[in-house]
Design a protein that fits this description.
- The complex is a heterodimer of chains A (114) and B (113).
- Chain A has 114 residues and is mainly β.
- Chain A is 0% helix and 52% strand.
- Chain A is built from no helices and 11 strands.
- In chain A, the strands form 2 sheets. In chain A, strands 2, 4, 5, 6, 9, 10 and 11 form a 7-stranded mixed beta sheet that branches. Chain A has a 4-stranded antiparallel beta sheet with strand order 1-3-8-7, with no helix packed on it.
- Chain A starts with a strand and ends with a strand.
- Chain B is globular.
- Classes of the chains: A mainly beta (114), B mainly beta (113).
Chain lengths: 114, 113
């Protein structure tokens, strides 16, 4: 299993541009998540999905959109990029059970907006 | 709202020493708690997931404990090695029934040869 894969690894955007960060998992997990990590701030949840066709906002959703058309894919869309969106973005997935939601992370996408 | 705090923020120890990393959380109505390792410029690697009923979980030289009543978890690393140098993150669910993780800011560990 490849686990959770993310593309691209690095990207530089100009202010106002848009892009999509790709995330794919091959573990048949129904829960998927997007986090951003800023220096000294810890990880913050942007959006999450509990299954295909179902998404919901996390702690910091402004400026982002998501969709979940398949179990495997959970792309994150940035519209009108702003310098405040410079960050490292991590996608994660987990299998849902009553007591265990162990999350598995992708390698991250490092985004710079200038 | 769940809040997770990790102390210390950074720790430097000589090789071979045993050490303890601390994590505290405010909402104790959790099913489990997860410890991660993050190497510079890399993603997060899951180390241990402790269920609330387990109180302890072991993997090799790592032992994690969970005390819900006091809102604390510890990660014990035995016989530390330079390869253990990384940032260690603790994450707790948002509360009863919640699967959204709240992360601490991490403890940056340096093991000196």
């Amino acid at each position: 299993n490849a686990g959770v894969t993310q593309t691209p690894k690095f990207r530089i955007l100009k202010i106002g541009q848009s892009m999509t960060l790709q995330c794919t998992q091959d573990m048949n997990h129904n829960y998927m998540y997007w986090y951003r990590q800023d220096p000294g701030m810890g990880l913050k949840l942007i959006y999450y999905s509990v299954g295909a066709g179902i998404t919901d906002k996390g702690e910091v959703p402004n400026g982002y959109n998501v969709s979940r058309s398949t179990t495997e894919d959970f792309p994150l869309r940035l519209e009108l990029a702003a310098p405040s969106q410079t960050s490292v973005y991590f996608c994660a997935s987990s299998y849902s059970s009553t007591y265990s939601y162990e999350q598995y992370f992708g390698p991250g996408t490092r985004l710079t907006v200038t | 709202k769940q809040e997770v705090t990790q102390i210390p923020a950074a720790l430097s120890v000589p090789e071979g020493e045993n050490l303890v990393l601390n994590c505290s959380f405010t909402d104790s109505a959790i099913y489990n708690l997860q410890w991660f390792r993050q190497d510079p410029g890399k993603g997060l690697t899951s180390l241990l997931l402790i269920q609330s009923s387990q109180r302890e979980q072991t993997s090799g030289r790592l032992n994690a404990s969970l005390d819900k009543s006091s809102g604390r978890s510890t990660l014990y690393i035995a016989a530390s090695q330079p390869g253990d140098s990384a940032t260690y993150l603790c994450a707790a669910p948002g509360g009863a029934g919640s699967y959204q993780l709240t992360f601490g800011k991490g403890t940056k560990l340096s093991v000196i040869p």
